[in-house]
Amino acid sequence: MGIIKGMKKIWQGIRAFVFYIGLVVLVLLMLLVLCLLGFLPFHYRQLCVTSGNRLVMLWLRLTCGVKIRVRGLDNIPSTACVVLSNHQSTWETFFLQFLFVPASVILKRELLWIPFFGWGLYFMRAIAIKRSNPGGAIRQVLKQGKQRLAQGSNVIIFPEGTRIRGPELGTFMTSGAALAKSAGVQLLPVRHDAGHCWPATSWLKTPGTINLAIGPAIDSARGNPRELTEQARQWIANAL
User: Fold this and answer.
1) Considering the entire predicted model, what is its pTM?
2) How do residues 6-19 score in pLDDT, each as one tens digit?
């Protein structure tokens, strides 16, 4: 049994290594596309890049045996909204951006410093906040988030602030609900379990199915930011 388990681990490592080689190639190609098509309006640039994200998901399935199941697509509003998602895996960065295209992701500023990957996030108008300055971060989210929403882009927020191992949820910050209320748009709760296939603490990938559920949109006029956040959290907690 020990030998079989060891062989499975080696094979899993080989598959993950092949996946990361392809991931690097795809990210570099997406960055090249951004440089060549930088003169195009943002919406078209993002469509090009999110097509690359779809290829990343296909490559993940081919190399590591990770499938994706989504339900609740009919809950996505026809107008820009604030998406609140639990935070488990790097997988979110790729999948949610093309699922809710056009979209801007709120993330910690340090991610922009990652070569190539961070540059792509910058070109995709990510809202990069400095977590060591909570007051300034909230003001930045409200200011830039309202600009993105007014331009027709969804804003994706991970209210836990840091990745949490599933199925537990961390404490939810209220900035996403505050943005939705200030901008007069809906909140859209999202729950997924990507951490069991693409864990935040390991470079290995585990074959399986990632489930993602999209909840009913929440009217931001019906409550204060704390109440709206709790309503979204309760749905997310019971979604899967």
Assistant:
1) 0.88
2) 788 888 999 999 99
